Amino acid sequence: MLQREWTPGWRVPVRAMLSLHRRGRADPAYRVATDGSVWRAVHTPDGPGTLAVAGRADGSVLARAWGPGAGWLVENVPAMLGAHDDPAALTPLDRAVARLAERVPDLRIGRTDRVWEALVAAVFEQKVVGDEAYRAWRYLLTRYGDRAPGPVPADMRVPPPRPRWREITESDWHRSGLEPVRARTVRAAATVDVERKADRLTALRGIGPWTAAHTRIRAVGDPDAVPVGDYHTPSVVGLALIGERVDDDGMLELLEPYAGQRYRVIRLCELGAGMPARRGPRMPVRDYRSF
Within a 10 A sphere around the Cβ of 272, how many other Cβ atoms? Predict the structure, then answer.
């Protein structure tokens, strides 16, 4: 076990920042312990590893890690928690954004530097409700992921490395509930080393602006990534900024003055105003396993 204590100089909401990487309540690669620490299983450049991160009352952060990837994980904790980011890059230009910035002071955007992990999870979530994507993620990690190193529950798994995703059988793709289009997208993307190509993801077949934006948000901490085509984001932004729901075009118009910092504004809306009340029928959870 490797351990690192880090004092960032600002208050770090560990759970809020790392929650972006949780894929459903039963994510095999993510746990929140009873003491409030966040545990993540990650396939690093050095191999599988488990990271536990906890914020302390004095403002410091304690990180512990296990496995071949332990050194890489503890070294990258500051980046995961936004040390590279500059919240002062956003200058509020209207009262709504200024009010949100006051509610969520010093908002920072973290980065994992694991593009493939973020990309494959985003592909799972393309044009479906979360439960459908999370079910497939849980099934395939349980079946193809390595057991997470360290003192973790037996069912905690490290996401498979990129080459192993090509080894998943047709029957297991089917059992996961993922339909053939997304399975083909993952398999095709697995032939490319995407770690240094986060700015060119849309060149890959099946990867559009929504998927690329969600990947960049998590992997490289892009403060300007806008997930156009998202089911909820336009409503969140519209209600937070002007008090009414908008579509993608309306959202882009509202965010245009903040070019370069548009995702930071979106995140302020999410954290400072919350999700809008849901009305009307929800998207159904599909199950391709019966087809």
Answer: 17
112 touches 218 (CB < 8 A): yes
* Residue 237 contacts residue 265 (beta carbons within 8 Å): yes
Rounded to 10°, the helix 233-242/248-255 angle is 50
- CB contact at 8 A, 117 and 111: no
Query: Helix 115-124 and helix 209-219: axis angle, to 10°?
Result: 140
Q: Which helix (H) or strand (E) holds 100?
A: helix 95-103
CB 80 within 8 A of CB 9: no
What is the β-pairing status of strands 2-6 and 61-66?
Answer: antiparallel
Separation CA 53–CA 75 (nearest Å)? 12
Say what the pLDDT of residue 127 is.
73
Contact 238, 245 (CB under 8 A): yes
CATH superfamily of 2-102+110-219: Hypothetical protein; domain 2 (1.10.340.30)
Rounded Cα–Cα distance for residues 213 and 221 (Å) = 10
Assess contact for 76 and 92: CB atoms under 8 A: no
**Integer Cα distance of 43 and 114 in angstroms:** 8
Instruction: Kindly report, residue by residue over 147-190, the tens digit of the pLDDT.
Output: 999 999 999 999 999 999 999 999 999 999 988 999 999 999 99
Comparing 160 with 278, the larger pLDDT belongs to: 160
Regarding predicted confidence, which is higher, 122 or 285?
122
Q: Which runs of E-coded beta strand occur in the chain?
A: 2-6, 30-32, 38-44, 47-55, 61-66, 146-147, 157-158
User: What is the residue extent of each domain of the chain?
Assistant: 2-102+110-219
What pLDDT shows up at residue 281? Answer: 45
